[in-house]
Each structure stands twice: as structure tokens, then as C-alpha cells.
Amino acid sequence: MSTAYISHPDCHRHDTGDGHPESARRLSAIEDQFISSGLSDFIRYFDAPEVTQAQLLTVHTVEHLANMEASMPQQGYARLDPDTVVSPGTMKAAKRAAGAVVLAVDLLMNGEMNNAFCGVRPPGHHAESDRALGFCVYNNIAVGVAHALEAHGLNKVAIVDFDVHQGNGTEDIIIGNDKVMYCSIFQHPFFPFTPPPENSERVISIPLEATAKSAEFRAAVNDHWLPALERFEPEMIFISAGFDAHRDDDMSYVSLTDADFKWITEQIVRMAELSASGRIVSVLEGGYELQSLARCVETHMRVLMGLS
Ligand SMILES: [Zn+2]
């Protein structure tokens, strides 16, 4: 399997200030882990391009793009909301983050790579069509999905989102689009405190109690996500890969282990092999405890690479 890692030095230059959990140290931890484990020898590294205005406009409003450009400070920091800190490097990082997902789609569709992981920040799944939220500026994965549908003519794609927070932004953008299935699982009630969407053939949303562990997580995926994905037969699967449900990550109460993240990746790979010729575009969302994040991303990559 040839697996791409797509990122850019600009994604490290999105400075959120001292003590902010969504820091550049997250990407450094992941990239260092690839090197120290020896996995880097088997990864194909790509620099993320900047997303174009036209690509952003497939999922965001003109007003949102103008607001974001106007909100970026020349120096120091600004806040888009109490959690979402931006600085002079943020705009480039945000454009590379969304551009990474677009490149991933192109690499898979032209047959150059089998699957891809986008190691990017700021993350994206809380960004709605017209607002930034929860560390997110643009909805990176939604931009990639729109590119797969509109530029490559795919008719059925699935997003699976195992970040511990509800992907309100992805829901806002995707729900109602019959070509997209959205499977999510998240602690509830919890940030962003939006009501879970009504489930349907295309929307499989699983709220978990704060006390949930491996058994509840795996049962929900087995009983709800996997049968729905098998029926839908997506032509490409996107992963909103958040690792903040890990028991070592104090961003949430849900307590998953390294083995659970390996298992969920294996299930998604199996689903992608059934209907999508193995095509998976995985995109980093949350995950704030650096050691568990680095280990779990390494394992996630190993499964994508067929090495585990
Ligand atoms: Zn999260």
C-alpha cells in the first residue's frame, strides 16, 4: 500500500499562544514519532498546497471567507471565540489544511496513492458554512468531500468521524446532501452543545455517555456504522480522525485505548476495500495528549499502510 502524509511547515506556524492545547507541538509529536519508529522510511511525504477561494466557496459562504480574512491580526493574537485563537500565521495554515485534503483526493483519484493522512492544523469539523468554532477555521474535510464530488464526479462518499466532539460544522455543511453519508460518535452532552442530528439513511450519529469505554464504542460502531456503510457502498471514505477520546487525553471523559483506535482504523479499511477500492482520506482533527496522540497516529498510519 502506498500511503501519503500530507502537511506543510505553515501548519506549524499557526500560533495559538502558550498553554493552548491545539498547538504546533501536536504535529511535531506525530512527525517525530514517524521518524523514531522508523515508519518515515515507508511514508510518501507531500507538501499541502493552499486551498483556492473557489474550493472554499463550495462549502463556506463569501461572508465567512471575508470575516476570516478580516479577523487575522497583523501581530499578536485574536480570538474568534473563547477557544479559537488566531495569529499572523493562521490564515496560511488554514489554507494549507484544507488544501491538503484536496491534494489527498487528487492523489487517490489519479491512482498515485492508495490512501492518505493529512497531518494538518487548524482542525476543521466544528467550522460551519458561515462560522469558525472550537479551534476550527475552515471545514477541511468538507472541502475535500466537495472536491471529490464536484471535480472528480464521485456520487457516494462517506465521512466517518471518531473525534470525541460532535462535528457540528460537518453536519451543518453535509446534511441534506444525498451523496454524502456522515457517521459520527461523540461524547454527549458536551462541546459544542448542539443537539445531535436526527438519524437517517445518510446520518448515523451516536452520542456516548461520558462514562463510555471501549465496549460501548465498539458496539455502537458494529451495530450502527458498519451496516450503514456496507449498505451505502461509498466510493471514497474520509475520516475525521480525532484522538481526543483516548483515556490519557483530558479533553474528554470517554476512555478509549490505543487498541480501540487501531480497531476502528481496521474496520474503516475493511469497509473501504469493499466498495471504495481502498480509497481513504484521513484528516487530523483533535487529540491533545501528545504521547497518546503520536502513538495512535502511528498505529493509524500502520493500518492504512497495511503494515500492522
Ligand atoms: Zn475533538
Describe the structure.
With 308 residues, this protein is α/β, with parallel strands linked by helices. It is built from nine helices and ten strands. It has helices at 25-37, 53-56, 62-71, 90-109, 140-150, 168-174, 214-232, 258-275, 290-305, and strands at 3-7, 44-47, 78-79, 85-86, 115-118, 157-161, 180-187, 203-208, 236-241, 280-284. It has an eight-stranded parallel sheet with strand order 2-1-5-10-9-6-7-8, with helices on both faces. Helix 1 (25-37) links the parallel strand 1 (3-7) and strand 2. Helix 8 packs parallel to helix 9. The longest helix is centred in the first third of the chain and has 20 residues, at 90-109. It starts with a strand and ends with a helix. The mean pLDDT is 98. It binds zinc ion. Zinc ion binds at residues 163-165, 242, 244, 285-286.
